Amino acid sequence: MRTVTVVGASLAGLYAARALRAQGFDGRLVVIGAERHRPYDRPPLSKDFLARAPGAPAMAAGARSPSDADTLALSDADAVTLSDAEALSLSDADEDAELAAEWLLGTPAAGLDTAGRAVLLADGRRITTDGVVIATGATPRTLPGPPRAGVHTLRTLDDAVALRAELHAGARKVVVIGGGFIGAEAASTCAELGADVTIVEAAPLPLVPQLGREIAQVCARLHTGHGVRLLCGTGVKALRADGRGDGDRGDSGAPPGTTTRRAPRVTGVELADGRLLGADTVIVGIGVRPATDWLAASPLALRDGVLCDQGGVTALRQVVAAGDVARYGELRAEHWTSATEQPAVAVRNLLAGTTVARHTAPPYFWSDQYGSRIQLAGHRGPKDTVRIAEGSPEEGSLLAVYERDGEITAAFALNRPRPFTRLRRRLGAGRPAAPAAPAGAPAAAPGATP
Fold first, then answer.
1. What is the rounded CA–CA span in Å between residue 83 and residue 78?
2. What is the DSSP string of 243-277?
3. Which of 47, 339, 353, 356 has its CA 20 to 30 A from that of 164?
4. Compositionally biased, Low complexity: which spans (predicted)?
């Protein structure tokens, strides 16, 4: 191959570029990104980044204190964003030079011309290529209805900059729609900032599909134990607004520095059960969908992601996929770890022209909320039983295992990192010995049905 194009300049895209060079590809390397930023670290966006006041010194990767960070004299929102992008950057100038990639940022891909062996860009450019790595990630789901100022999603750096500016400008009543991990982390940070926070979750408990009822209850107590109101089992009927929409302001959720016509500002959230919640700010965290719109006219199979084999290879051998956009067999993982592991496998198969390697590591993710660390690894099934092997909810620290037919399928930990890490390693090695149950522990409980 003389040219390989990586479509997607986030975590998986960067790891694909690294893997290409590490595996000996010395041809032309093109990286296409819809965002204007080089690859940056997303996990801090809902946590430390959001908590830090705009313009406050940021701690760059590798820095030991804010004073070590390469902060800039900040005079406007764009400067803030540029400084934040540097602080969150996943690479440095030396690595960028070693990669020797052409970065085409700020313009999304618009199509894949397989007959012409080209990636088409939204600005009309056409990148002729011999191989393609699809790493376009996912896009937040939004609520239906007209746009409202003060309503935010939290996926990109620009999203986080806009939300942070509003929170630190004095938003006191925050409604978080969706109690998944992004919603939970955002709620935790808003509570830390002193806001009056309410989470609205359509399911009986947040995270029931991922964790089952028993462990979901443990996580729900984190919210209520820190003063966050949790309303479950109801949906959102409509967003209330102030009815004004004239004038130009930069608080519509558009990138900083962008002047847009102001949408009416949100004032409340009307629930399906008739309740009305006052709100200065609404954070919508109702999941994501894989970013595959640009592939709709391609011959690739799309079903909640780009369908691949376990090696990331699509129906076209010169096209592979990795990260949030890729469905490996029956699983599409939206986890940081998968986005760092899958690209090397997919690139190896791309360069080989066939599937010679497979990604088999169990899914793993972590979440930091209210000063607690939550970790989950493995493949939990809806009928698995769950058993607390160490600690207890009352201690605020526990290790739980999910089991099926006597075998451990997944592990969960709350503030129990060491035993969790040991068990995760064993899960990855395919020999997950079960921790002994503590004395007096209750019998295994059947898994919850979402």
1. 9
2. S---SEES-SSSPTT--EEPPPBEEEEEETTS-EE
3. 339
4. 429-450
Residue 290: what pLDDT?
A: 97
pLDDT by residue (tens digit) across 406-448? 899 999 999 999 999 999 998 888 766 666 555 554 444 444 3
Angle subtended at Cα 325 by Cα 336 and Cα 126, rounded to the nearest 5 degrees = 120
CA 447 to chain centre: 26
Residue 228 tokens read as: 């966050």
Decide if 189 contacts 47 (C-beta within 8 A): yes
Got the DSSP string for 170-192?
A: T--EEEEE--SHHHHHHHHHHHH
Q: Give Cα separations from 212 to 86, 389, 410 (angstroms).
A: 39, 16, 12
Cβ neighbourhood burial of 311 (10 Å; 0-12, 13-18, 19+): buried
3-state secondary structure of 364: strand
Residue of 376, 414, 388 whose CA lies nearest to 221 = 414
Enter the DSSP assignment of 331: B
Grouping H, G, I as helix, E, B as strand and the rest as coil, residue 51 is helix
- Partners of residue 279 on adjacent β-strands: none
**H or E element that contains 209:** helix 208-211
Task: Round to whole Å and give the CA distance between 125 and 129.
Answer: 13
Q: Please list the ranges in the chain whose pLDDT falls under 70.
A: 56-82, 243-261, 431-450
- What pTM does this model have? 0.86
Q: Residue 68 has what pLDDT?
A: 37
57: left (phi over 0), alpha (psi -120 to 50) or beta: beta
Which amino acid is it at 184? Answer: A
